[in-house]
Amino acid sequence: MHKIQAAVLRRKGGPLKIESLELEGPRDDEVLVRIVAAGICRTDIDFCDDWDDASQPAVLGHEGAGVVEEIGKKVRSVKHGDHVVLSYQSCGRCQSCRKGRPMDCSRFWEVNFGFQRLDGSNALQKSGVGGHFFGQSSFSTHSLATERNIVKVSKNLPLEILAPLGCGMQTGAGTIMNSLAVPAGAAVAVFGTGAVGLAAVMAARIVKASPIIGIDINPMRLQLALELGASHTINNRRDDVAARIAAITGSGVDYVLEITAEPEMFQLAVDVLNPKGSVAIFSGATAPGSLPGGRKALSIIEGDAVPQHFIPKLISLYRAGRFPFDRLIKHFDFKNINDAIAAAKHGDVIKPVLRMTPIDRKQNKKER
Ligand SMILES: [Zn+2]
Ligand SMILES: [Zn+2]
Fold first, then answer.
1. pLDDT reading at 173 higher than 70
2. Taking a C-beta distance cutoff of 8 angstroms, is the pair 1, 13 a contact?
């Protein structure tokens, strides 16, 4: 058993409360990671807001990065002291996993959102709290992961920068580079320039898409989109998106990334799409699979990225100055996790990243 501190969700909408919990030691196939930093992603916030108070309290967090503290007997790919980024989990046994497509894992829902291992056990059971969210539950000083969702990274880059690669950055960039495989010269529109959208804008610049059009209601985020690679931006609160896209492109766009999850935006995405164009949707909801004129809608999971291949690729692009995702990050101390969530919801902060310095219990009490 390990004594840890974690942010526990006990009621719908939060606030999350930092509590001392007991975490089981790593099983043979598990890795205990001391979390140094963890990004906050929209899925964390959605879970918090949609929480059912009748369910077991739980620890969220799925963009963890840290240092390997202990490994199970069967673990080969990392050792004590290695730096790792944590990503989504997969079962490793189903047909998709065996074909090297863990994002299509047939047990994706259970293994990432079940708050327990696939055998029904839970490393936080003694504390009566659900863990294993995305195979990590990293709003915590320590996480249990497996070799399937850890990516070893260089010690030369700060973990507090690398944390968001595990979900948001991978999803945005992977959608452009993997799911849609956007070719040079293709016209791309990104609906919603938050963390995933801006990662997509940076990736669209890397693959030489043109034009790259960012759409949002937040002027600060649109400005950042221009700096990171958008050739045009549209404020959809002020401007007619379809008319502006027609004016920019002379027709429509070849690809739309619809990240806002607003129902009317999906219809708009279809309206501005060229024949044979594709719209990528991120809501997890099912959109029509076939649309008029050979247009297609794809439901995106983690940008079709295999973390162990794609995250090192993003890190090398970052080192080359071509994927400057550090510009999206604002750091918060772990104890201020609720402020970080509020800032992300408000849109002031694009990618909040928590720094996991352990919290003195007395101090914690005083602040609550
Ligand atoms: Zn699987
Ligand atoms: Zn995420």
1. yes
2. no
Task: Report how far ligand 2's centroid is from the alpha carbon of 42 (Å).
Answer: 6
Asked which of 36-45, 183-192, 228-237, 288-297 is least confident by mean pLDDT, the reply is 288-297
Nearest ligand for residue 63 CA:
2
Please compute the mean of the pLDDT values over residues 220-229 and round it to a whole number. 97
Q: How far is the CA of 167 from the centre of ligand 2 (A)?
A: 5
- pLDDT value at position 285? 57
Burial 62-75 (b: 16+ CB within 10 A, else e): bbbbbebbbbbeeb
Using the mean position of ligand 2's atoms as its centre, give its distance from the Cα of residue 87 in Å. Answer: 9
pLDDT digits (tens, 9 = 90+) for 16-34: 999 999 999 899 999 999 9
Q: Which ligand is nearest to the CA of 282?
A: 2
CA–centroid distance, 48 to ligand 2, in Å, is 13
- Measure 292 CA to ligand 2 centroid, in angstroms: 31
Q: Ligand nearest 284 Cα, by number?
A: 2
CA-nearest of 103, 104, 123 to 115 is: 123
pTM over 0.90: yes
In angstroms, the CA 263 to CA 231 distance is 26
* pLDDT recorded at residue 360: 55
Ligand nearest to the CA of 91: 1
Closest ligand to C-alpha of residue 300 is 2
